[in-house]
Write a structure and sequence with these properties.
This protein is of the alpha/beta class. It has helices at 21-24, 42-50, 63-76, 88-91, 95-103, 128-137, 151-162, 189-196, and strands at residues 31-36, 54-60, 81-85, 104-110, 143-148, 167-170, 202-208. A 7-stranded mixed β-sheet has the order 3-2-1-4-5-7-6, sandwiched between helices. The model has no long low-confidence stretch (mean pLDDT 94). The protein binds S-adenosylmethionine. S-adenosylmethionine is lined by residues 5, 7, 36-39, 59-62, 87-89, 110-113, 125, 188-191.
Length: 211
């Protein structure tokens, strides 16, 4: 099993220069989705190739994976997809990222690293402060999607997001996926593994409710 990258390491205090939306995408006015912890971006490639009416942005802390994703992006000449290397927890200090978060329609946290030991909870990507910053930046109606196969991590993420009064849970049964960032319900890389092994999947959608 791979070792998780410790996001609290000083190596990740700085992130690469984040370009503006106009520099990132062919049409910067399209709906924008942000995937946090996108690994090598296979899921985002699947989405971007089919949903030309959306822009997709992935953030990943493992530099090698981002390099691989960027090379593939050049090869395939896809203009509605972009990758940023860095620690998602530090990105909200970046001016350009703040502007971008104000424009996103949705954010996904798909199968984040679980960090099982209590003393390592601080390394989890979803933190109360991070959620607070998102709640201050996101527009009313923006969505957050979480998904994991670890029940304990799901409970922690659900508690952390729900404790912020700006976010309300959406009943999945009434959610219209066809208008979401993932209308075809593509699976992420981890999700395919989880389904193959018949593990449970825990997921929830939240909507930013006040402005
Ligand atoms: C278990 S993998 C899941 C990858 C993908 N989302 C999927 O569902 O297949 C979790 C990913 O999140 C990345 N990650 C963990 N902490 C992060 C952070 N603070 N900022 C950005 N990426 C992070 C890891 O390096 C890893 O690629």
């Amino acid at each position: 099993m791979r070792q998780h990258v410790n996001p609290l390491s000083k190596n990740f205090d700085e992130i690469e220069r984040v370009p503006s939306l106009i520099e990132m995408f062919d049409d910067s006015k399209l709906n924008l989705h942000l995937d946090i912890g996108c690994a090598a971006g296979e899921f985002l490639f699947d989405l971007a190739l089919v949903n030309s009416n959306w822009n997709y942005l992935g953030i990943e802390i493992r530099e090698r994976l981002v390099k691989t994703a960027k090379l593939k992006l050049q090869e395939k000449k896809i203009k509605n997809l972009y990758f940023i290397f860095g620690n998602a927890n530090n990105i909200l200090n970046d001016y350009q990222i703040k502007l971008i978060i104000k424009n996103v329609k949705s954010i996904s946290f798909n199968f984040p690293d679980p960090w099982f030991k209590k003393r390592h909870y601080k390394r989890r990507v979803i933190q109360p402060e991070f959620i607070k910053s998102l709640s201050n930046l996101l527009q009313k109606g923006s969505l957050i999607f979480i998904k994991t196969d670890v029940k304990e991590l799901f409970d922690y993420m659900d508690f952390t997001i729900s404790s912020n009064l700006s976010f309300k849970k959406i009943d999945k049964n009434y959610f219209n996926y066809s208008e979401s960032y993932n209308p075809n319900k593509f699976f992420t890389t981890r999700e395919k593994y989880v389904i193959m092994n018949k593990f449970d999947i825990f997921e929830r959608i939240y909507i930013k409710s006040d402005s």
